[in-house]
Amino acid sequence: MEQTLFQKYGGFSKVSRIVLDLYNRLLDDDDIGPFFDDVDMARIVDHQTKFISSLLGGPASYTDEQISRMHHHLEIHTRHFDRLSEILAETLTDHGMTPQDVETVVQGFEQRRKLIVV
């Protein structure tokens, strides 16, 4: 039986650690950090853990409508999304993901760009 990337990288516990590190980095970024000023971080970390898990072949998933609804009130522009992609790739790499697996996750985000960027 073929192993999913979700299984390869240790399931929810590992993905959760990666996402916590990702948000620490995002909060430190001058352009991205302010998006989280009034956000319930525990809730967003939970959502992002499930989303990234789904991109790795894990059990959780989000519809395009849910993703669009979660971001429709934000003024996320191309430069914000590009910076998020950079920080995401750095974080995944620092947690030991192969370049090919990093690209899989980054492309998963990229495919949803039109749902998020205004």
UniProtKB/TrEMBL annotation:
Pfam families listed in its UniProt record: Bac_globin
Q: Which CDD domains match?
A: TrHb1_N (cd00454)
Which superkingdom heads the taxonomic lineage of this protein's source? Bacteria
Annotated keywords: Heme, Iron, Metal-binding, Transport
What is the protein name stated in its UniProt record?
Group 1 truncated hemoglobin
Signal peptide boundaries: none
